[in-house]
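Ticket reopened. Same input as before:
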Amino acid sequence: MLNIIWFVLLAVGIIYALLNGNIDAVTAAVFSSAGNAVKLSIELAGVLCLWMGLFKLAERSGIINIIAKIIAPVAGWLFPSVPRDDPAFFAIVMNLAANLLGLGNAATPFGLKAMERLQKLNTDPSAASAPMITFLALNTACITFIPTLVISLRTASGSANPTSIIGATVVATTCGTIFAIVFDRLMRHHYFR
Amino acid sequence: MLNYISMLAVPLILLLIPLYALIKKVPLYETFVDGAAEGWTTALKIMPFLVGMLVAIAVFRSSGAFAALAGMLSPLCKALGIPVDVLPIALMRPLSGSGSLALTAEVFEQYGPDSFTGMLASVMQGSTDTTFYILAVYFGSVGIKKYRYAPAVGLAADAVSFISAVIVCRILYA
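Engineering reply: fixed in the latest deploy. New output:
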């Protein structure tokens, strides 16, 4: 599916640009975005190092097990095939908590850690497993209580009440997340039957 | 109150995890550095996936195809009573976080952040995450090639979040 999406983005863009004489802009954008992607991953490296270091501390000290016990009932329902005491759960909880609080740059490292753990349990390492997709569904729907970026943009744009959108955001994001969980469940039954 | 929690979360985690590890007599600094070493390899691993994704999105956007698509869908928006100017945000949101944030900033400039359009744009921007970025980076980091139904679930959830945003904003702010 991603193969097709990737090709469509490229092909439609290039053909449209050729028809409209806009190809110079596309060429420029290709090089600048390739550079930006590298810049972004380097910037991410610092934050990744920080959170992966903290993760190791949490792992060695046993905080991971405490969190796993607390969330066991919910986690067991969402991820039935993952062992209850797996360190993946700590990463998943931290990732979702970071999203909830609008801490985007803390969410990614824990998300990647969770994927690494889930990959260890995966029977076919080239294909997404059911718990991985459930985790990504939770992540892309991204239940958010404090959309920090939007609030700071609203503040910068001179809003009289930058945080007034929190209530509506919580409702919209909760609808999306509930739908994601239900839809994922249906797809999982259909796909892995 | 909620903002306060958000502000304190990182410093508190930075304090509590090492504190607990100290009580448990874990060698703090060595353990931290040991874990941190993984950060760099992970960053390198996701780099090619980011390049591929960001270049394709840049081609689509800079060619004008994105604006044309938004223009094509705008009559549908009008029929549903959705402000046409938030449509590009909804379309851009799953593709690019910085792209949709820039579009939100444009809406703020044109209508003001506290207008109905501005509020709706804010809620749309805040209520979902960048689906394609997450798919590419998360799956890329562990070498998953077959995404199965993950893109379908992610995009459908985005659509539900946007529709919910429109309905909630209509009720609260219209």
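Chain A touches chain B through 111 residues (CB under 8 Å). Chain A has two domains: 1-49, 62-191. Please confirm and we'll close it.
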